[in-house]
Automatic annotation (TrEMBL):
SUPFAM superfamilies listed in its UniProt record: Cytochrome c (SSF46626)
Stated name of the protein: C-type cytochrome
Signal peptide: none
Domain Cytochrome c: 79-159, 207-290
Keywords: Electron transport, Heme, Iron, Membrane, Metal-binding, Transmembrane, Transmembrane helix, Transport
TM regions (residue ranges): 18-40
Length: 291
């Protein structure tokens, strides 16, 4: 009986023990709330007592989005030459993938056999200077000769050749520049040679925007000069009249995006890599010549 009676006895037997228990309970709750607030707000508050107003922090927050995560490109850095596959896709594929204007299709060994027999030097010369319906450098005069050579090797090797990939020439050594003293006098080098301090290079003249005729001569004349692939010849009013009747917006769209009809095929931008505005200027030039 005594054991059963003690099992139901409370550990708090006096008023003092009750006060201590209640006080301890509230103390635990207060400490828990404080710890929770500290955890929730740690390193997240900005303002007084933080570094949020320092110059470095402010500069980081107002940094333009365009500069975040990008590497600035030095405009004076040497040009990075494209691989043959990239040049082919951008310039050559318009005709050599479709066979437009009589271009031999890439991979068609039967069409390439006779051409490959002429040798690499002849193929390279034709690609640089142009031949028949093939415009110089595929219609993109901005290409470096080495880029054209790489494209020739890429295309011909897929069509039965085994030409070696051309190697970029080693960069030329920079000329020695003599030091000058405070008065601007040339100081002899250690070897006794005296060189003249080069003068500042004159700024390059501004490049004028290409006119419609220049774009025509570079990208359009291959087809529109001879009427190849159904292209209306420059100045042929009879051939141009129904096309002009469609309106400039339609002519622009066909010239920029390409067009394939019953009479022939027009590759996008004539197979050249030029801005849309230059293509429109070339269209205006040809339309004016037909009026």
């Amino acid at each position: 009986m005594s054991d059963a009676h003690h099992e139901h006895d409370s550990i708090i037997r006096t008023p003092k023990q009750l006060i201590v228990a209640v006080a301890g309970f509230f103390l635990v709750i207060v400490i828990g709330i404080i710890l929770l607030v500290v955890f929730a707000t740690s390193d997240r508050l900005t303002g007084a007592g933080t570094k949020s107003q320092e110059a470095e922090a402010v500069a980081e927050r107002i940094q333009p989005l365009a500069e975040q995560g990008f590497t600035l490109v030095d405009a004076n850095a040497p040009k990075v030459l494209q691989a043959g596959s990239a040049v082919y896709a951008a310039v050559c594929a318009a005709c050599h993938d479709t066979g437009a204007a009589g271009a031999p299709k890439t991979g068609d060994t039967g069409a390439w056999t006779a051409r490959l027999g002429q040798g690499y030097d002849t193929l390279y010369k034709h690609a640089i200077e142009g031949i028949r319906a093939m415009p110089a450098k595929g219609g993109n005069p901005d290409l470096d000769n080495l880029e054209v050579a790489r494209a020739v090797v890429f295309m011909t090797n897929k069509s039965g050749a085994s030409f070696k990939e051309p190697v970029a020439p080693a960069p030329a050594a920079a000329p020695a520049v003599a030091a000058t003293d405070a008065a601007g006098t040339v100081v002899p080098s250690a070897a006794g040679a005296v060189t003249v301090q080069p003068t500042a290079a004159a700024p390059a003249p501004a490049v004028a925007q290409a006119s419609g005729q220049n774009v025509y001569n570079a990208a359009c004349v291959a087809c529109h000069g001879a009427g190849i692939a159904g292209a209306p010849k420059l100045g042929d009013k009879a051939a141009w009249t129904p096309r002009i009747a469609q309106g400039n917006s339609t002519l622009y769209e066909h010239a920029i995006k390409g067009f394939q009809g019953k009479a022939g095929i027009m590759p996008p931008k004539g197979g050249a890599s030029v801005p849309d505005a230059d293509v429109k200027a070339a269209v205006d030039f040809m339309v004016a010549a037909a009026k």
